[in-house]
Amino acid sequence: MSADALRIALVGNPNCGKTALFNLLTGGRQKVANYAGVTVERKEGRFVAPSGRVLQILDLPGAYSFDAVSPDEQITRDVLEGNYPGEAPPDLIVCVADATNLRLHLRFLLEVRRLGRPVVLALNMMDAARRRDIAIDVPELSRRLGLPVVETVAVRRGGAKALVARVDGELPLPAPVQADDPASRVDLHAEVRELLAATVSMPRQTAAVDDALDRWALHPVFGLAILAVVMFLVFQAVYSLGKPMTDLIGDGFGQLGEYLAASLPAGPLRGLVTDGIFTGLGTVLGFLPQILVLFFFILTLEESGYLPRAAFLLDRLMVSVGLTGRSFIPLLSSFACAIPGIMGTRSITDPRDRLATILVAPLMTCSARLPVYALLIGAFIPAHAVLGVFNLQGLVLFALYVAGILGAMLVGWVMKRIRRDRSEHALLMELPSYRLPKVRDVAIGLYERGMIFLKRLTGVILALTVLMWALSSFPAPPAGATEPAIDYSFAGQLGRGLAHLFGPIGFNWQMSLALIPAFAARETAVAALATVYAVGGDAGALAPALASQVSLASALSLLVWFAYAPQCMSTLAVIKRETGAWRVVALSFGYQFVMAYAASFLVYQIASALT
Amino acid sequence: MWLQCEPFLFVAGSVVRLSDLSKGTAAVVDRVDDAHANDAIAQRLRDLGFVDGEAVRVVACAPLGADPLLVQIGFTRFALRRAEAARVSVRAEVAA
Predict the structure, then answer these.
(1) Contact predicate A510/A533, CB 8 Å
(2) Which residues have CB under 8 Å from A542's CB, separation 6+?
(3) A315 vs B54: CB contact, 8 Å cut-off?
(4) Of A316, A428, A431, the CB nearest to B84
(5) Size of the A and B interface in Cβ pairs below 8 Å
(6) A417 C-beta neighbours (distance < 10 Å), count
(7) What is the dihedral of CA A24, A27, A29, A31, to 10 degrees?
(8) Checking phi first, is residue A378 left (phi over 0); if not, alpha (psi -120 to 50) or beta?
(9) Would the CB atoms of A430 and B78 count as touching at under 8 Å?
(10) CB contact under 8 A, A214 and B59
(11) Are the Cβ atoms of A214 and B60 closer than 8 angstroms?
(12) How many helices (H) and strands (E) does chain A have?
């Protein structure tokens, strides 16, 4: 069946609405965005044309030219030229152009035409063009280009009818192959100018609504204020919508596990079901609501065209610490959880900038650290009033957040100094027109993100969670044991071993032991401490128990440790998935370990000397 | 560094760098210079339409250090860092 399917490649500039068109044609599962160059994966879909012919559509990454600055453009060029390994050259190229931005987009079409393959031009966003009174003489444009031109509206049902009818018909004749050389590039611009002069009339260069919105959104004062409000809302939503759902899922799976376990005989199997599999599932799936809420906002902001504006406002600040304006949203997301944050770095087109962002993202204080902070601050920091209005406990919490941000800035700055590739990496970012996000495109994007997380990560994280359970459950305590069961387990032995390592930063063996489950999920450090201090599930009893047995210097050291500590294994799994390199995972884990150890050592030694 | 974002008088026809052009001043591109051999950024600028005779205008400047700049070229707006915009020489058309 695929042998006689017509292979169609969709190409076009970033922001031409190509992906929305792909969604419309295939009803497919493909993320669509307003943020330049977000399509980095190979996306394919197929549909049956009215004639009964199967059309196989490949959605190629957006490209400005065949100069191939980015890996995306390299792929697009290679596929179109038939040079991409394992990818058959397309039978037909559909070049998508934004009808409101033809000067830029037609130039790329001319580059595509030189390849000497059959090409159809789809003039997309014709609805927006009409609203702006842009008149395009389509028959004349088609005649001058020597290829078929159809109008499309990717965001409207039935908006691709003309395109489907055209590609379902006879293949157009290819243009003659032309060599690519620098001199002819300038000719392309001249040719575009001629084409525009002859076929397009445009009352004004930009959309009035864009100018009006940008006057506010990019204003030096109001722009930053608007950005602050948007950030605040996103952060609040993740926290107040996502977190309760996360807790609900965690508790739900815990109870489901206990319910199932009731029908099992007591013993290792029951432990595996309740403490291993179901607690693990609850933890893993618990990330899902936060990921979905966050990506709902990211996708909506991307689709609307606001995201590049935010990157524009903050680029200078981010560059000063070795990042890019585009790093901002992923880093903001990481305050909720580093996992969606790291997944969100896909919108950073430059590989070096993306890697730098992935490496610092876990330093943002994620919500899983809060229970640990809350426990230790509640136990050790008095609720003094400071300067009459501030609460000392709140100030300490704030300081921990700031410590994370300063740490990230420091790491970014150091990376900028020591990395081998110190060449200039351009921003050169298009600020697309504002658009109303389409429900279908946001929904498809959300579905994709959710599935990536569930399919690719659940297995790994679940396996690690079960391993963690086994370590803390075996061997079982001897008969008549007086200490908590975890004390006798491998994890207990490991904790005592680790205490030698962590002694210099003030951790006793109980605290060292709690770091092991914290590696599965940070907040479990609280439960682990409760277990080893044998206060059971009574969280209220834990704080006094800690306060009586742990010094203030040790507690401060543990707080600082959690601010910088190596991330949880779910984060490491997502870093592996997003970068494909264990080297990056090792680097990420390693530098944070060193950083956390050094910071805790300083805090412990100074605090010990003072108290 | 001299950060130019406020209205400033240019002699019509004088060639300045895009990074020195004040906000709102109408200008046309003169050329793009390579900052070094095989300057991919300069080539990209040319591909994006920064070619001789194209109308260009600085629309906005970012709040911190007036960097990056928002530049309108043709029907498209690009955010360019100052180092990128400095590669583009423009002829100021009208005094602001």
Answers:
(1) yes
(2) A375, A379, A526, A529, A530, A533, A535
(3) no
(4) A428
(5) 107
(6) 9
(7) 20
(8) alpha
(9) yes
(10) yes
(11) yes
(12) 27, 11
B38: contact with A, CB 8 A cutoff:
no
Distances (CA, A) of A109 to A101, A115, A165, A488: 12, 10, 21, 70
At how many degrees (to 10) do helices A222-237 and A279-304 cross? 150
Instruction: Please report the ipTM that was assigned to this predicted complex.
Output: 0.90
Residue A119, beta-bridge partner list: A93
Measured between beta carbons, which residues in chain B are less than 8 angstroms from residue A77? none
Q: Which residue has the tokens 């997301």?
A: A333
* DSSP structure string for A18-69: HHHHHHHHH-------SSTT---S-EEEEEE-TTS-EEEEEEPPP-S-TT--
Q: How far apart are the first and last CA of chain A?
A: 78
- Pairwise CA distance, residues B72 & B69, whole Å: 10
**Any idea how long chain B is?**
96
Distances (CA, A) of A75 to A82, A343, A386, A425, B77: 10, 21, 58, 20, 25
Q: B62 and A202: CB-CB below 8 Å? A: no
Interatomic CA distance for residues B89 and B75, integer angstroms: 19
Residue type (1 letter), A518: A
Strand, coil or helix: A97: strand
Strands A390-391 and A119-124: unpaired
The per-residue pLDDT for range B42-69, each reduced to its tens digit, is 988 998 999 998 999 999 999 988 889 9
Residue A506 falls in which region: left (phi positive, over 0), alpha (psi -120 to 50) or beta: left
CB within 8 Å: B48 and A64: yes
CA-nearest of A579, A592, A31, A564 to A345 is A579
CB A40 within 8 A of CB A135: no
- All residues of chain A having their beta carbon less than 8 Å from the beta carbon of residue B64 are 314, 316-317
Could you give the C-alpha distances from B20 to A17, B7, B17, B53, in angstroms and in order?
34, 11, 5, 18
A441-467 pLDDT tens trace:
888 878 877 876 776 566 666 776 677
A67, A214, A429 ranked by CB distance to B43: nearest:
A67
> A282-286, A292-296, B50-54: which has the minimum mean pLDDT?
A282-286
Q: What is the pTM of this model?
A: 0.81
| Amino acid (one-letter) located at A382 | P
How far A297 CA lies from chain B's nearest CA (Å)? 23
User: In angstroms, what CA-CA distances link A216 with A128, A234, A313?
Assistant: 22, 20, 12
Distance CA A56, CA A88 (A): 12
Handedness of CA B23, B29, B31, B37 (dihedral sign): positive
A103/B49 Cβ within 8 A: yes
Which residue type, as a one-letter code, is found at position A337?
A: C
Would an 8 Å CB–CB cutoff place B2 in contact with chain A?
no
Contact of A424 with A352, CB cutoff 8 Å: no
Structure tokens at A499: 């205490």
| B65 close to A (CB below 8 A) | yes
Give the span between the Cα atoms of A452 and A448, in whole angstroms: 6
Contacts (Cβ under 8 Å, ≥6 apart) of B63: A220, A221, A223, A224, A313
% of chain A residues with pLDDT over 90 = 30
3-state secondary structure string across A281-320: HHHHHHHHHHHHHHHHHHHHHHHHCHHHHHHHHHHHHHHH
Q: Do B63 and A220 touch (CB under 8 A)?
A: yes
